Amino acid sequence: MNKADEATDWTEHRLERLSGYPYYKLRAGDYRAIITWDRDDDILIVEAVGHRRNVYDRHLPP
Fold first, then answer.
1. pLDDT > 90: what percent of the chain?
2. Exposure string (b/e) for 20-50, b if CB count within 10 Å is 16 or more?
3. Is pLDDT larger for residue 14 or for residue 36?
4. Which end of the chain is more exposed for a tag (fewer CB within 10 A), N or C?
5. Domain boundaries, the chain
6. Which CATH superfamily is domain 3-51 in?
């Protein structure tokens, strides 16, 4: 996953905070990764990856 590797180098610029959730999103074309970012240890945890049309519905709580 090339975009995830890029995100570790430019985390502040690549990740967008999801409003109302403790997650971030990483865009790669029509796909999105839902990510938890441990800022203290600078670790990215990929929670889910999917098409932008339904990744949020499937993997985020209501």
1. 55
2. eeebbbbebeeebbbbebeeeeeebeeeebb
3. 36
4. C
5. 3-51
6. RelE-like (3.30.2310.20)
Round to whole Å and give the CA distance between 5 and 7.
5
Taking residues 33-48, what's their average pLDDT? Answer: 90
Sign of CA dihedral 7, 54, 36, 48: negative
Q: What is the pLDDT of residue 10?
A: 62
Looking at every residue in the chain, the average pLDDT score rounds to 86
Instruction: Judge contact between 15 and 35, C-beta under 8 A.
Output: yes
Terminal-residue alpha carbon distance, the chain = 28
* CA dist., res. 35 & res. 26, Å (int): 7
